[in-house]
Amino acid sequence: QAHLVESGGGLVQPGGSLTLSCAASGFTFSNAVMSWYRQPPGNKRELVARIGTLGGNTHYADSVKGRFTISRDNAKNMMSLQMSSLKLQDSAMYLCHAVIAGNLYWGQGIQVTVSS
């Protein structure tokens, strides 16, 4: 059974940095296209960043380009999202997402709050 667990969220001041991690289990992680999504309160879920199976072929939402970096470690079944220069509008629930063999999996999400 696929399982995705996010960690590393919390409260950070504007301009600060935070790194999120996603631990995967129950599937062949190296075969999955991995993504981070976020959902601010009262808004729809949006793609933040995506990374291909080998760690290349990354894609970022325009709103985070140059500030966020997605990466993965297939040996450890882990994905990360380094976030810097955080803005108030980055506050949201961040969710880990995996696509493998046509199946979609979601983590439970973790809260990131950017506030002074």
Topology:
Layout: E1 3-7, E2 10-12, E3 18-25, E4 33-39, E5 46-51, E6 59-60, E7 68-73, E8 78-83, E9 92-100, E10 103-106, E11 110-114
Parallel strand pairs: 2-11
Antiparallel strand pairs: 1-3, 3-8, 4-5, 4-9, 5-6, 7-8, 9-10, 9-11
Structure in words:
The structure is a single chain. With 116 residues, the chain is mainly beta. It has no helices and 11 strands. The strands form 2 sheets. Strands 2, 4, 5, 6, 9, 10 and 11 form a 7-stranded mixed beta sheet that branches. The protein has a 4-stranded antiparallel beta sheet with strand order 1-3-8-7, with no helix packed on it. The model has no long low-confidence stretch (mean pLDDT 97).
Uncertain regions: pLDDT < 50 for 5+ in a row? none
Structural Rg: 13 Å
Structural class: mainly beta
Reading the helices and strands in chain order gives EEEEEEEEEEE
Q: How many distinct beta strands? A: 11
Mean pLDDT: 97
Task: Describe the global form.
Answer: globular
Biggest β-sheet: count, sense, barrel?
A: 7 strands, mixed
Strand content: over 45%
Termini Cα gap? 40 Å
Helical region count? 0
| Portion of residues within helices | under 10%
Question: What is this entry, summarized?
Answer:
The protein is mainly β and about 120 residues long.
Overview features:
single chain; 116 residues; mainly beta; 7-stranded mixed sheet; 4-stranded antiparallel sheet; 0% helix; globular
